[in-house]
Write a structure and sequence with these properties.
single chain
Length: 206
């Protein structure tokens, strides 16, 4: 269901993003530049605003600049496909952005003496990095690992919904969303390890 939603969202965004992508390419702006700018924008929203409790501004900035992840991919396809360095840079910047988001939320919750919420944010930060590492390591060994209930888009959507509910007065929603996300991320790690194990067993048998 999550993958179907993601495909539908990409289709809906294409009509908006593609003209912007073409315009940026005509100006000589590269996909890699957009990747870096998008990450810096997310960090400004997270570290500059979320960490200080300005959740609404932070949410707006993070959503806007997170969409550049779709924009740079569209630009790369228009140029004939992503380069090896472009793919590496995109993945690396995603990890930096995620660290900024969840690290800032951990700091924000700590300033509010919400220790359990802070623990949830730190778990999301740590386990989210493991989710990405397991996939990267599996692909480095020649196997696929594009599975899991809580991939990056789902993780960002979950914390975004929790933050939005906190903004309208449901302060418990943000730590609750983080705890749910932490559990789902742990499950995702297990799903990916099991998926890779099955492939490894099949290769060994063959």
């Amino acid at each position: 269901m999550a993958k179907l939603f993601r495909v539908s969202a990409r289709t809906a965004l294409s009509s908006v993003v593609e003209p912007i992508a073409r315009a940026l390419l005509r100006l000589g702006i590269t996909p890699n530049t957009v990747t870096v700018i998008g990450t810096l924008g997310v960090l400004v929203g997270a570290v500059g605003f979320a960490a200080r409790g300005h959740l609404l501004i932070a949410l707006v900035l993070v959503v806007i600049f997170a969409l550049t992840d779709f924009l740079d991919g569209t630009m790369a396809r228009m140029k004939g496909g992503s380069t090896r360095f472009g793919a590496f840079l995109d993945s690396s910047m995603d990890r930096v952005a995620d660290a900024g988001i969840f690290g800032s939320l951990a700091y924000y919750l700590a300033t509010r003496d919400d220790r359990w919420g802070m623990v949830a944010a730190l778990l999301c930060l740590a386990v989210g990095q493991i989710v990405s590492y397991v996939k990267a390591r599996a692909e480095g060994l020649g196997m696929t690992c594009n599975v899991g209930i809580a991939e990056r888009p789902e993780r960002l959507l979950s914390v975004g919904v929790g933050g939005l509910l906190a903004i309208v007065g449901l302060e418990w929603a943000l730590p609750a969303a983080l705890w749910v996300l932490a559990v789902l991320s742990v499950i995702t790690v297990g799903q990916r390890i099991a998926h890779v194990y099955k492939q490894a067993q099949t290769q060994t048998t063959a």
